[in-house]
Design goal:
267 residues, alpha/beta, 2 domains, 3-stranded antiparallel sheet, 11 strands, 18% strand, binds magnesium ion
Amino acid sequence: MKNNSKYWIVTDLDGTLMDENYDISPAKKTLDILSKMAIPVIPCTSKTASEVRYFRNENGLSDPFIVENGAAIYGTYENNSSEWELILGKSYKELRIILMNISKEVNYQLIPLNDLSQNQIFELTGLSGKAINRALDRHWSVPFLNPPDDIFEKVKLICESYNVHVFKGNRMSHLLSSESHKGQAVNHLKVHLQNHNVRIIALGDSQNDLPLLQYADISIVIPGKNGPNKYLQNGIDKGIFRLANAPHAEGWSNSIEEVINSFKDLC
Ligand SMILES: [Mg+2]
């Protein structure tokens, strides 16, 4: 990736570029256009580095990537293609202890994804075999089963005293250091690559994308089949976020093509 790119596309994966079956095929053509225009596509996801490395290989992406909801950033050096790493979060071990303490405080057992059986993980995520191993390769965040809404609100309030925060994704919630979120990670990446003037085009579908969408210059909400996430509705109502005209990869593709057509002179 060139360090002087004018635009970065920073995108969530699950529910945004991917549908519930992890399919991104409606966006393939747009990804090719972006590659030809040398516009970086930076995954920014709750997934693990192992999962995103696999995803990048499958889809021919080579730009940096932000994982575990902003807790770590990776990229490859151009001269020798080895990987660099920026860590912004607390360790899995430390966070897991905090999750157990919070469970006691709210009197509700919060169950980490990594404690489930392979069958339970398949039921929840549709993943199997090696894909499960990649999903469990966590280092800087603890995903856990979504508790009921009232418990989730209590957890949110308690988090501050532990210096952590929680985000609710589509399939599960995530506990991570309060120093790490997706918006913060993009800012760190800008500094790391010394590209302070790059404009960020961000796409997301859930509450965990809110810090990214708030940070970005152009913010696009990808709706699900039943419309946009309730946590992102306020930004749409205020006209700060754009709403894509279709769910998942199709909406992703339409929105990106609209943006790049409006900046035909951008590269
Ligand atoms: Mg998502």
